[in-house]
Amino acid sequence: MDSDSRPGRQTSADWRADLLAGITLRPAAAPAVNRLGWPDYDGRPALRWGAGPIAGVPAVAAVWDFAVHGGSFGEADAAGFAEAAAAAVASRRPLVSFLRSGGTRLQEGVAGLVGLPRAALALATLDAAGVGHVAIADQPTTGGVWVTIGSRCDLRCAVGGATVGFAGPRVVAATTGAPPPAGSHTAASAFAAGLVDAAPAPDGVTDWLHRALIALTPPSPIEPAARASPPRPPRPSRPLAPPVRTVRADLPAGFEKVAARSGWEQVVAARTGERADGATVLRALLPDGVDLVGPDSLVGARIGALLGAGTAPHGGGGTAPHGGGGIRAVVVAVGARRGSAPGPAGYRLLARAARLAGKLGVGLVTLVDTPGAAGGAHAESAGIAAAIGDAMAAVLACPSPTVSVVLGEGGSGGALAATVTDMVAMTPNSYFTALSPEGAATTLRIPVEQAADRAGLRPTDLHRLGFADCLLPATTSDQVAQAAAGLLAELSWQDPTQRREWRQQRWSTELRDSL
């Protein structure tokens, strides 16, 4: 950053200084043309960019200087941001946007405004190349920069105490006639609303950013992840086949008891028996991961290296795949605790997570434990049906290896949206059904126990029908995490094209004829 004391500079002891110490920032571009004839307008860009280590991880930085026209975004800034994104794509290093901006460069009028779609297109190149993007929204981050860059990146952080929002508080007051309420438009309120994934104090940004960049960095800064893997171990002697076609005559330990239960007894076991919940397994799978946050606490998501295993050079994942060993993944708990009924925001987080896994080419693990999605007037008016449908489409379309583990309850489309994966596993105290037993009993006008007994909802039933691929004799969070990591590792060695064809076939054909 510059060392001068131009008006508007926030502080000479900038918390970003240490993070950017190893980077030489270059001016974004030549000054913009003064088309509107503003007096003494120099058109200098507020954005500069450069490449180097950030929080110990090689990356590309795009840095806004609030001292230059309030960090506002105009033509020259858009050109510089496109250059930074192109450098990130070329080096396959994550892009970090350090935001301090009041929005669009008003002195440039519409010419400044059209810098926003230029930034959006630059970010689309990152998406197409599978390169990660992190944004740090500092004091202040508002307007088009928040809309186009801060709110659309892969991992989002707002610095504690910062003003963050679509319209700044003064603009809100001027356009609505009343200032926003106290506590609105802040990093804390954005985090509470699920608009950002973290809101640390300035001295906590480095730790969060290090973990975020580790999670987003591919195994090599030059080669795509698919080409950077170490030599594969010997392939199994049996030919790979669609998992859904594999049938076991014997039952794993613990499932003999399941086969002896009635359907209703299985439901009771799922609701009251000893087993892990989604939030606990999520943490066990990715103990050092970075959270993806949404406003619905009933769905949790995280990205990182499975089981906290060692990472490849430059902080990336992608080391030996067996047992999780460094494989990066996105894990989503659809039902973070027992009895969870996620709402639309939860399914939007599931869709975001699935798309991120696909963009980065990392595995997707879903942990299913919900009797069904939220109903009621609020969920309905908030678009629960469309949110479930979009999430299901995102999981089906994810090009990465995908595994779902049904931990407990699995009810209706709310559970199915997270279960349309390459491989479906079920634990002893779990079930899956077209509608919760209570809902089915009401619809069919029969006792709830009878509705459960006739639903074919036990793991053993679902395995014989071909809905479930494997039965996991795992009940603790560590056991489930180990098993899920192993399943994802197995899938990671399959031919990607063939695996996706099998998924398409699996979810577009009927189940077996009968139990």
UniProtKB/TrEMBL annotation:
Any single GO BP term: malonyl-CoA biosynthetic process
Stretches for region Disordered: 220-244
Annotated pathway: Lipid metabolism; malonyl-CoA biosynthesis; malonyl-CoA from acetyl-CoA: step 1/1
Keyword Transport: no
Catalysed transformations (reactions): N(6)-carboxybiotinyl-L-lysyl-[protein] + acetyl-CoA = N(6)-biotinyl-L-lysyl-[protein] + malonyl-CoA
Compositional bias (Pro residues): 230-242
Start and end residues of each CoA carboxyltransferase C-terminal domain: 263-513
Entries under InterPro entries matching the protein: AcCoA_carboxyl_beta, Acetyl_CoA_COase_a_su, ClpP/crotonase-like_dom_sf, COA_CT_C, COA_CT_N
Residues in coiled coil: none
Record keyword Kinase present: no
Pfam family, one: Carboxyl_trans
Domain CoA carboxyltransferase N-terminal: 1-231
Any one cellular-component term (Gene Ontology): acetyl-CoA carboxylase complex
Enzyme Commission number(s) from the entry: 2.1.3.15
Superkingdom field: Bacteria
Keywords recorded for this protein, A-Z: ATP-binding, Fatty acid biosynthesis, Fatty acid metabolism, Ligase, Lipid biosynthesis, Lipid metabolism, Metal-binding, Nucleotide-binding, Transferase, Zinc, Zinc-finger
Molecular functions (GO terms): acetyl-CoA carboxylase activity; ATP binding; carboxyl- or carbamoyltransferase activity; zinc ion binding
Gene3D superfamilies (UniProt xref): 2-enoyl-CoA Hydratase, Chain A, domain 1
Enzyme class: transferase
Protein name: acetyl-CoA carboxytransferase
Higher taxonomy: Bacteria, Bacillati, Actinomycetota, Actinomycetes, Frankiales
